[in-house]
């Protein structure tokens, strides 16, 4: 039972990390197609090598910071999107959310959208990297839950 709970929690956290990758990637492709071509065109399973240790601890810390900010934007917009009465309004909110998620990543010290996407993709295909990120996220969420209110 405990293992199932831990597995479920890890899956949920992994989904929160992976989910922002697509919208942020799509926003980047609209803003700067040249910067996003490789991540958009290459599926994770077709990437040549997944850099597991290629990301420094500082970069991963920035990734976790950005992921937490993106998660906050997602949570905020999810309720607004669900409450929107019309499809056009929902679509406008989705686009607004994508812009805010990209901004949240760019505003994180030591992180940009391309690196964020690369780490997200690498974490999906590299269990060791995924575990490192999950551990960092869990530590941050446990220790900083009271400081996350803005």
Topology of this protein?
Blueprint: H1 2-18, H2 21-31, H3 33-41, H4 57-83, H5 87-107, H6 113-125, H7 127-144
Order of helices and strands: HHHHHHH
On the 0 to 100 scale, the average pLDDT is 73
Low-confidence stretches: 1-16, 19-52
How many helices? The count is 7
**Mass-distribution shape:** elongated
Oligomeric form: single chain
Query: What's the N-to-C terminus distance?
Result: 36 Å
Helix content: over 70%
| Count of beta strands | 0
Radius of gyration: 16 Å
Structural class: mainly alpha
Range of strand content: under 5%
Question: Would you mind describing this structure in some detail?
Answer:
This protein has 7 helices and no strands. It has 150 residues and is mainly alpha-helical. 77% of the residues lie in helices and 0% in strands. It has helices spanning 2-18, 21-31, 33-41, 57-83, 87-107, 113-125, 127-144.
Question: Characteristics of this structure?
Answer:
150 residues; disordered N terminus; 77% helix
What's the short version?
The protein contains 7 helices and no strands. It is mainly α and 150 residues long.
């Amino acid at each position: 039972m405990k293992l199932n709970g831990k597995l479920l929690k890890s899956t949920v956290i992994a989904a929160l990390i992976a989910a922002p990758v697509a919208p942020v990637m799509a926003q980047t492709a609209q803003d700067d197609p040249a910067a996003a071509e490789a991540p958009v065109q290459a599926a994770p399973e077709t990437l040549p090598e997944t850099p597991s240790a290629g990301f420094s601890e500082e970069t991963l810390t920035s990734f976790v910071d950005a992921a937490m900010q993106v998660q906050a934007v997602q949570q905020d917009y999810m309720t607004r999107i669900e409450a929107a009465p019309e499809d056009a309004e929902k679509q406008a909110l989705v686009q607004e959310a994508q812009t805010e998620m990209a901004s949240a990543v760019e505003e994180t010290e030591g992180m940009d959208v391309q690196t964020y996407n690369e780490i997200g993709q690498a974490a999906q295909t590299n269990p060791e990297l995924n575990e490192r990120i999950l551990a960092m996220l869990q530590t941050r969420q446990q220790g900083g839950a009271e400081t996350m209110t803005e």
